[in-house]
Design a protein that fits this description.
With 342 residues, this protein is α+β, with helices and mostly antiparallel strands. It has 9 helices and 16 strands. A two-stranded antiparallel sheet has the order 1-2. A two-stranded antiparallel sheet has the order 3-4. A hairpin with an 8-residue loop joins β7 and β8. α5 runs antiparallel to α7 and α5 packs antiparallel against α9. The radius of gyration is 36 Å and the shape is rod-shaped. It is found in: Secreted.
């Protein structure tokens, strides 16, 4: 806690604080001829009487000193030096608050006369400008207005939902690929942040909003694990009693849950991508040439196609086993027959 009396800060302290401020482009002006930047961002204005509506830059190492000086100096408005037109003497004038400008500079006998900014003009800081600044920001393509032009603020724009600023353009947020999830949603200023799904979680599709999801627990669901989960797909459970179970019940080919279990089992086997695409082509009856796709995507598509076919065609299991033989995946066929007692 600082203890101090309300005396003006020493000149040496003021000079130290002013040297700590970043250089202001165009802040040096001839006597009596203020520049926009100098008038709007003079050290006195920034140190002593901050506008509470103004967003400040990040505090630096000298922030406590600046805060102390600000509290000491805010009992009166900031000032500037001006040459009296009549006497040619230098006088100290009060600056005008945000939303106004200097209509008449002060003299030895009269204080500064401030006037409100006209429409479409503004001043953001305490200043000694002789006219307000024009609201010159225009929202561009894929931008929305978030701050209307008013007496104290220029118009402000940001990228619309689903886009972020990159250089001078609004670019669509990136999607996290299968196997990765969103750890931080994109914003108007930042792109989506993705991370590979950790053990025990998965993401099966591309998304700019969805995080990784936890694998389901088959035991808690009262089912058996058919296909262990990985970073690309969930753990697949089944109520079908497979070989090796303590149950004496044997699955029948027409058992719907067992059919789905067999489809899941085959679709997520560790099949080389080339043979997996060939299997997909045979079952879908599609041309050989296909778009480049990852193994995880092809597996998901194959499972979706077979599940849809199962609902329309009672012989889908027979077709699947035949397709495995046609693609010389006889070892997968054998494992499926043994596992599901076909």
């Amino acid at each position: 806690m600082f203890l101090y009396n309300a005396q003006p800060p020493p000149a040496a302290v003021l000079r130290t604080a002013e040297r700590a401020l970043p250089p202001l482009r165009g802040s040096v002006a001839p006597p009596g001829v203020p520049t926009d930047t100098a008038a709007l961002r003079s050290p006195a204005a920034m140190l002593f009487c901050p506008d509470p509506t103004v967003r400040r830059p990040p505090k630096r190492a000298f922030a406590p000193l600046l805060l102390l000086l600000a509290e000491l100096g805010c009992s009166s408005p900031p000032t500037y030096q001006w040459r009296d037109a009549g006497t040619k003497e230098r006088v100290t004038c009060q600056q005008c608050p945000p939303g106004t400008f200097v209509a008449q500079h002060c003299t030895k006998e009269r204080p500064t006369v401030c006037a409100p900014c006209p429409d479409l003009h503004y001043t953001h800081y305490w200043n000694y400008l002789e006219k307000c600044l024009y609201c010159n920001v225009i929202c561009g393509e894929r931008q929305v207005e978030v701050q209307q032009c008013n007496a104290t603020h220029n118009r402000a724009c940001q990228c619309q939902e689903g886009f972020h600023a990159e250089m001078e353009f609004c670019v669509q947020h990136s999607e996290c690929p299968p196997g990765s999830g969103v750890v931080k949603l994109g914003s108007p200023s930042e792109n989506t942040q993705c991370r590979a799904c950790p053990r025990g979680s998965f993401s099966s599709s591309s998304s700019s909003t969805e995080p990784c999801r936890a694998h389901q627990n088959c035991t808690q669901l009262g089912k058996e694990t058919n296909v262990p989960g990985n970073q690309y797909h969930d753990t697949l459970c089944t109520s079908c009693r497979m070989s090796g179970s303590n149950s004496t019940r044997e699955p029948a080919p027409q058992d719907e849950d067992c059919e789905q279990a067999l489809i899941d089992f085959v679709a997520y086997q560790n099949i080389p991508l080339r043979k997996l695409k060939r299997l997909q082509q045979i079952l879908e009856r599609t041309p050989r040439k296909q778009d480049p796709e990852t193994k995880a995507v092809v597996q998901e598509k194959l499972r979706t196609v077979l599940t849809h076919r199962k609902q329309e065609n009672s012989a889908v299991i027979t077709e699947l086993l035949a397709a495995l033989r046609a693609t010389k995946l006889t070892s997968i066929e054998k494992k499926a027959r043994e596992r599901f007692l076909l």
